[in-house]
Design brief:
By secondary structure, the chain is an alpha/beta fold. It has 2 domains: about 210 residues, Spore Coat Polysaccharide Biosynthesis Protein SpsA, Chain A; about 80 residues, no CATH class. It is about 40% helix and about 15% strand. It contains 12 helices and 9 strands. Strands 1, 2, 3, 4, 5, 6, 7, 8 and 9 form a 9-stranded mixed beta sheet that branches. The longest helix has 19 residues. The chain is globular.
């Protein structure tokens, strides 16, 4: 009988020919034994798959099961990840974007932590990789209680990225809804809020090994436009409906406003005229009261947004015209 893989790593691929070799090698060189990597081709139009196949052909490890699956259509990141999840056989699941990389021995450390603590989810620190520097992002909130993590995610104190975590596969499949607005254009990472809320045991690993590539601004997770903002609105509404349906939902109301401000701070950069800024002002009006309190943003950002929330649009129009690319 074939031994069950310890971890299934899901890697969606679209338009990452510049980075796919680096990503694949970082996975193929991991110290963990007996795991699988599932690459899912989302109808990429570049040479990513040819580069990947060459990289795989040069790999001589026999303890790693490698699969390249193909979407029939271009489905986007969320559905592509889910395609990989459906194929996964591992005890645990991990996501990796194909323009990112993972240091040694990150996957082994996360797997061992999960086994040691019987955790449904393990999360860890990570790096943002810029052109000439790296920035360490600490995800330590001083607690491993799942509900405390939900509070921290909603208030945007820590990231809700799927890629910096490892999930027990059975738990993951039981708690991922088959139909949700979260499965669209960016909101899939917010599924972590649902997952952490439903988890029994979650564990923080105080180490950074995942490198999140912020050089590729056209990647599946980072390209921003009006359609994506509208999808985020759907996702936040989905999160709010989920949280407020729970008996303790009222305990998360303030943090939900912080999540809404996170979206408003992104959306305001897309507003090029007064009509769009009036739409922005009315978007989640109840959250306007925490714009200034949210110190995740610079004083200048907060003041410009606060002015717009009070109908003073000139500062935002000036910045967006002359200082936003």
């Amino acid at each position: 009988m074939e031994e069950q893989p310890k971890v299934s790593v899901i890697v969606p691929i679209y338009g990452t020919e510049k980075w796919i070799e680096r990503c694949a090698k970082s996975l193929l060189n991991q110290t963990l034994e007996n795991f699988e990597i599932i690459f899912v081709n989302d109808k990429t139009q570049d040479n990513s798959i040819a580069i990947l196949k060459k990289c795989i052909s040069e790999n001589h490890r026999t303890d790693i099961k490698i699969t390249i699956a193909d979407n029939d259509l271009n489905l986007g990141l969320a559905e592509t990840r889910m395609h990989g999840v459906r194929l996964a056989k591992g005890e645990y699941i991990m996501h990796c974007d194909s323009d990112d990389r993972i240091e040694l021995p990150t996957i082994e450390n996360m797997y061992q932590q999960a086994k040691k603590t019987s955790a449904d989810i393990v999360w860890a620190d990570f790096y943002l990789d810029y052109d000439t520097e790296q920035k360490l992002i600490s995800e330590d909130i001083g607690s491993t209680c799942p509900k405390d993590v939900v509070h921290a995610m909603l208030s945007t104190k820590i990231w809700w990225s799927m890629c910096t975590k490892i999930y027990r596969r059975e738990f993951y499949l039981q708690n991922i809804p088959s139909e949700t607005k979260l499965w669209r254009n960016g909101g899939e990472d917010m599924l972590n809020i649902r997952l952490f809320y439903n988890a029994s045991i979650t564990t923080y690993l105080p180490m950074a090994g995942y490198h999140y590539n912020v050089q590729n601004q056209q990647s599946m997770t980072r390209a921003l436009n009006i359609d994506k903002i509208k999808s985020y609105i759907d996702a936040i509404d989905d999160v709010e409906n989920f949280i407020m349906s729970k008996p303790d939902g009222h305990l998360f109301e303030n943090e939900l406003n912080y999540m809404k401000v996170w979206l408003k701070q992104m959306a305001i950069y897309q507003c090029k005229n007064r009509h769009q800024l009036r739409w922005w002002k009315n978007l989640y009006r109840s959250a306007n009261k925490v714009i200034y309190k949210n110190k995740n943003y610079s004083l200048t950002q907060r003041l410009i947004s606060l002015c717009a929330a009070h109908g003073i649009y000139f500062p935002a129009l000036l910045r967006n015209k002359y200082f936003v690319k």
